[in-house]
Structure to design on (1228 residues):
């Protein structure tokens, strides 16, 4: 194979303690790229309608991207793919940090984990070799605690992907945490619980291989030339981190408040915004491997009730869900809840959403103090927030119910509770409002993993960022319906490719166009992918994921939004009528299916699949 | 009590063979009127969350209207109310004919049937007395057969309400048939199965009481004065019957075709239209009691494969469902399928819909000849149509599955089948397209009994009929969104009142305004109800039915439309882009809840209930 992309994957069978190499040829790699693209291909081949998410047969797939461990800016991410136990459908989740690059340094592009260990185990992956090691002494420990222990037992420069106690206990909201207290978590879709079902506590990776690059000089020159632009364009974003967007999004009616009910919360968001964090608990910034933007926040709380917080700070999504959704404006409490999520291995998005859901149940008498072990689960109660996160992490008391996510919890509670449960296909909504961006509305309704802000990531382009290849010319407006479906589909193709190449989507904040990203990709792989092939490949990946989901029963009926997102305007002061819109999802979906070559039930037509080589 | 309205209802306990009188005082009557209004009040009082539709405790309520058996034009209808076994929620269905007026002649406004007979029973109600009679010899016989038998055993002028074999066998699509072969069926919501669960074959009614009228001279004068207008205005409608509308509705894209998929079917509908029937199998017209319009069709087929048809002919809805939905353009076959429905006691709307659903399953390989007992269930196969109706009536072979309605059948078939199942809250869509009339879209989504064309009946007003009191000034357009919710709500209040007063909605085709209907109502009752009270009462009834449904788990999540109605444009030739619209249900519902004083979950606010005296 040309260039740096080897398509080298190890298949690790925990039941039999066997490791086999599986090579993917160039044709397959070029068709499915890597990351969640090649991951989806593997999942499609290795599962069927009956594969239980917690069965040994369900593969847990870790995939880096073709440009991992090269100079390519923001290319340090990796994907985790499996059948989700939370949603029952295609699950993908990705993380930044250093783990993906380290995997490539160990000479590998991916790991396919199958089977189930007899007792708690961790994998020690060094320079392409895999060792099965006992993890009994780590079982029950949190992800921050075990990071130094594992480094001590392996290599001081190793990188750890691990589950916390939540994953061990199969909590459906649990994720996979990387890099210890500089946490980067593959949070969504409950894939930490899949890892827990395999009794796999951690995967520790170390290596010394250099990344092979087809055209190293061209790549170096290009990166050098563009670096000043990246640094300049991403300056503010890097300085304030993702939560720098909190105030802007709140002003636009995009920030989630009180389980998506409240209109504005100006005084509240000021206290949990990026600037507020920068002025108080921020200690330093940190970056994922090969990222010049450095949006990571390290925070520390020295005193007060939340003293002890020390590590990764809350992101925008976390501020939205643990903060805005629950109306908690106590930054230190949000930081503590965030840290508990990281330590126990919980997705902060789903965790915040399910707590807000529970608060609305409590408000309406569907949950009482008898259910909450005496906790007063009122809006804005920051102690309650922290307690709830703990209970979910420990699967204790009401935490057991809430850790199942809003869909299942609402069904178990019954009555009107399903009306408070905002999710798509079982995945809780992230911190962007489908009523605020019709592109997001359509994307949430159609994304493979359920309500996902990343698989189309239209919001930036719907408010001024340009990317001419998807039609984002700075004039795409939030509430326009005409042409929106085509725009969303193209964004999905592009972002699906970024998820396969493992670029960070924030590279757009660094002023980098699609053409830059594609050029670097070709310089690494030695390929000559043009824009047409790029988009066709993106469309292939989207259709592949769709076909996986179709096999698990997904059709048009599931491409929807929660009633609240379609029917209910926000209440309270602040948003004017002109700022209050409700997405006409029927029209958007109709246009989308037509553009996609899907039939009316949302299933790709045979001719479309043939066209895409599926 | 003033005037003619006695509020006199008999409570009939089939288990204990007991009859008690229950009087409703004037205040209650004025608050809930009669028909399905007072019926809803009784249902609300006598059921709870756990009342099984087939339990002896579920009351089956027959209610005439306050003007029954008077001179008031079109006032001969009656309502049947119960918890629906098909939908699990509020069930109401009404019928024309002579039974309601006869009940009033027997001195009664209604019957509340509870309990369960030990063996097949019929009730013989004469002049206010009820006799429990053995119906063993009638069990298994169809409704046309038993009509003369029962008259022979009781009184030659008696009127029969009966179930056919479908109701006996608890087929969920079964209705209650009145007047033998001049059939008028309370078809919707499966209330025939409730009657079957009580082992009640028929209720035969006869009486000699005159209808008391508060101001008989005024009433006589008014009716005399207006009769020429009614006759003139309803001339064409009366001549062609309800199926006179088939061609117009098809042209407008309102007529259901091929399970709501096909755009146009000009050649097909010509063969099953009102004029086609008038020129071929029509024998004579017939009218409900006190109706000058006479939209009923008596048809007869003498030869050919469908020889033997002799009685009530297919209505517009039946042409739409047994005809257009299944693409069957053989009028005699539709007439035969219609007659089988009447004889076995099946709702033609739901029956046609579930056969079309099955045809789509067959087209897509979800049902095969193995499932259909060898029947080739292809679109347009008129023999298959007739066979399917028989099988449902007999609960035989695949008829057992289909007789459960599209919601349950699609769940049992699984796979993609739910995408073919068009219903709201479990009730199959009638023959009007929510994409063609946005008023119908909102009405279908919010009607108490599920997808209902009668509870708002906006379509006439959305294409030119005027009724200034609901804002219908001839300029209400089908696809306008602004103001549509208020218009629909007002139509629902008005039509809910017609359902309580038991006017026929076709009185509007007779040129009669709301003011006429209200005047007659006051002349009979002696009340002084003004328009404000009329609409407030209509709103009360709507909210009462909503509260009944809320108790059975209905909320916003259920106020929706099938995906196909919201997302999918019709295909094939015919309809231009300008004629293809998709209802923006989110916006419509949001406006509707706001206008209604309901909260975002679609539940009436406490202050609204207080305002309405509920």
């Amino acid at each position: 194979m040309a260039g740096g992309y080897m398509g080298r994957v190890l298949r690790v069978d925990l039941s039999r303690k066997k490791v086999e190499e599986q090579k993917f040829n160039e044709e397959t790699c070029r068709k499915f790229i890597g990351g969640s693209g090649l991951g989806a291909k593997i999942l499609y081949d290795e599962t069927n309608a009956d594969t239980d998410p917690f069965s040994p047969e369900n593969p847990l797939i870790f995939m880096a991207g073709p440009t991992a461990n090269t100079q390519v800016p923001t290319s340090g991410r990796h994907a985790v793919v499996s059948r989700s136990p939370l949603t029952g459908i295609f699950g993908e989740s990705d993380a930044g940090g250093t783990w993906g690059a380290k995997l490539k340094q160990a000479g590998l592009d991916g790991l396919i984990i199958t089977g189930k260990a007899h007792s708690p185990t961790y994998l020690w992956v060094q320079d392409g070799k895999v060792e099965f090691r006992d993890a009994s002494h780590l079982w029950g420990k949190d992800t921050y605690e075990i990071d130094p222990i594992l480094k001590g037992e392996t290599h001081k420069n190793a990188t750890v992907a691990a589950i916390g106690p939540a994953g061990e206990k199969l909590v459906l909201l649990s994720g996979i945490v990387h890099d210890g207290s500089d946490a980067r978590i593959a949070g969504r879709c409950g894939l930490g619980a899949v890892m827990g079902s395999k009794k796999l506590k951690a995967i520790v990776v170390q290596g010394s291989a250099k990344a092979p690059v087809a055209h190293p000089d061209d790549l170096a020159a290009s990166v050098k030339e563009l670096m000043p632009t990246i640094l300049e364009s991403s300056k503010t974003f890097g300085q304030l981190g993702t939560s720098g967007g909190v105030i802007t999004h709140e002003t636009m009616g995009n920030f989630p408040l009180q389980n998506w009910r409240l209109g504005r919360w100006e005084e509240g968001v000021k206290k949990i915004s990026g600037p507020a964090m920068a002025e108080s608990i921020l200690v330093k910034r940190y970056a994922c491997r090969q990222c010049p933007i450095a949006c990571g926040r390290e925070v520390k709380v020295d005193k007060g009730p939340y003293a002890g917080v020390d590590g990764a700070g809350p992101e925008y999504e976390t501020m939205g869900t643990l903060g805005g959704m629950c109306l908690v404006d106590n930054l230190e409490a949000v930081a503590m809840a965030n840290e508990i999520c990281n330590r126990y291995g919980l997705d902060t998005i789903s965790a915040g959403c399910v707590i807000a859901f529970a608060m609305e149940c409590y408000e309406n008498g569907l949950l009482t103090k008898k259910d909450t072990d005496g906790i007063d689960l009122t809006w804005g109660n920051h102690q309650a927030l922290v307690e709830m996160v703990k209970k979910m992490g420990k699967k204790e008391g009401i935490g057991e119910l809430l850790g199942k996510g809003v869909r299942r919890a609402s069904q178990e509670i019954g009555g009107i509770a399903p009306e408070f449960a905002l999710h798509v296909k079982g995945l809780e909504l992230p911190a962007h409002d489908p009523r605020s961006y019709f592109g997001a509305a359509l994307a949430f309704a159609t994304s493979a993993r359920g309500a996902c802000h990343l698989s189309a990531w239209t919001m930036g382009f719907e408010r001024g960022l340009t990317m001419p290849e998807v039609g984002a010319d700075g004039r795409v407006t939030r509430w326009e319906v005409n042409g929106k479906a085509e725009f969303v589909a193209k964004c999905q193709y592009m972002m699906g490719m970024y998820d396969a190449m493992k670029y960070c989507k924030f590279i757009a904040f660094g002023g980098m166009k699609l053409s830059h990203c594609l050029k670097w990709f070709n310089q690494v792989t030695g390929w000559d992918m043009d824009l047409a092939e790029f988009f066709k490949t993106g469309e292939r990946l989207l259709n592949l994921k769709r076909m996986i989901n179709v096999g698990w029963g997904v059709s048009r009926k599931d491409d929807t939004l929660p009633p609240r997102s379609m029917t209910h305007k926000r209440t309270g002061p602040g948003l004017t009528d002109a700022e209050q819109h409700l997405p006409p999802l029927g029209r958007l979906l109709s246009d989308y299916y037509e553009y996609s070559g899907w039939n009316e039930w949302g299933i790709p037509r045979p001719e479309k699949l043939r066209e895409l080589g599926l």
Summary: Chain B touches chain A at residues 261, 415-416, 418-419, 553, 555-557, 559-560, 563-564, 566-569, 582-587, 589-590, 593, 600-601, 603 (CB under 8 Å). The longest helix of chain B spans residues 531-551. DSSP finds 24 helices and 19 strands in chain B. The domain at 9-206 of chain B is CATH 3.60.9.10 (Aldehyde Ferredoxin Oxidoreductase;  A, domain 1).
